[in-house]
Write a structure and sequence with these properties.
Elements lengths: L10 E4 L6 H31 L6 H29 L4 E3 H34 L4 H4 L2 H26 L9 E2 L6 H7 L5 H34 L4 H29 L8 H26 L1 H12 L2
Parallel strand pairs: 1-3
Antiparallel strand pairs: 1-2
Length: about 300
């Protein structure tokens, strides 16, 4: 890469979701509501878990961090996207684009890894209930979360460094509503094969590692549940996993579709819709899934209502 041939690009412009003024207002109203629910639900989950002593367990400790990650990466994207739907100037500084991508990538990766950690937690609770409090001690939970955030930030740093060292000597219009890798790689006039290889390799490691961790944990969980004699006991054990499995299926399925493709298969319009789903809709759904299907969270909400 010859840095001497690179132009001194100082900003990018988002082309956004659509150019239709009428559709923009409809989308603004809809996604403002989605983001408001997302903000309220995730903040509410974090506050509820912090306030209720009954929820001071490893499972809810990890759930509060899941809500925190969801809140961080959706807030990195959502408010800016909403402003761009009604603003005429959709520019973002080069450094701002790099920062937006770094924060998004760090917390989205942490979200992905955290789902595997939560599966491991359920495995320990069901497979080894008598040793659960020892195995999943406060120190162990803190170390697991430190590992999750370290890996997420390391991956984000690698991608951010490689991407924003590329030459952008042509158009500075990003055909997207935020700074994501596929549209940025399309704008570069450098050879992006290394970036694509690193993206595929690290994503494969994180995604397949996370999915493998979930699958192995649930294989052992199923074997353990089958050994339970009572039908009620089996149902109770499975009920603690339903919400987590739903969250894993939605998140991992969307991410696999987005990033496990060569750049030649990139479709801007299709990917904008998919990106809207995993940057705004999934973070909104996660706390709703856990609150609707979780008995402990329902009880905590009832107790909180009594206080008012």
């Amino acid at each position: 890469m010859d840095k001497g041939n690179c132009s001194s690009l100082t900003e990018f412009y988002f082309l956004g979701i659509t150019n239709n003024p009428g559709l923009k207002m409809a989308l603004f109203t809809m996604f403002l509501l989605v983001y408001f629910i997302n903000l309220l639900a995730n903040l509410g989950m974090i506050i509820l878990i912090g306030m209720d002593p009954q929820l001071h367990t490893p499972m809810y400790y990890f759930l509060s961090h899941l809500s925190f990650c969801d809140l961080c990466y959706s807030t990195t994207i959502g408010p800016r996207m909403l402003v761009d739907l009604i603003a005429k100037n959709t520019s973002i500084p080069f450094s701002g684009c790099a920062l937006q991508f770094f924060i998004f990538c760090a917390f989205a990766d942490s979200d992905c890894l955290l789902l595997a950690v939560m599966a491991f937690d359920r495995y320990q609770a069901i497979r080894h209930p008598l040793l659960y409090t020892v195995t999943m001690s406060s120190r162990a939970c803190s170390l697991l979360m430190a590992g999750v955030y370290t890996m997420g930030m390391t991956d984000a740093l690698v991608h951010t460094t490689l991407t924003f060292r590329l030459c952008f000597c042509g158009s500075n219009e990003i055909n997207h509503f935020f700074c994501d890798l596929p549209p940025l790689l399309l704008l570069s006039c450098s050879d992006t094969r290394i970036n694509e290889f690193v993206l595929f390799t690290i994503s494969a490691f994180l995604e397949l590692g996370s999915i493998s961790g979930v699958l192995v944990s649930y294989c052992y969980i199923i074997l353990s549940v089958l050994k339970i004699n009572s039908a009620q006991g089996k149902l109770k054990a499975f009920s603690t996993c339903t919400s987590h499995l739903t969250a894993v299926a939605i998140f991992q399925g969307t991410v696999l579709f987005m990033y496990f493709r060569p750049s030649s298969a990139y479709s801007p319009d299709q990917d904008k819709i998919t990106s809207l789903f995993y940057t705004l809709v999934i973070p909104m759904l996660n706390p709703l899934i856990y609150s609707l299907w979780n008995k402990d969270v329902k009880e905590a909400l009832k107790e909180l209502k009594k206080c008012f």
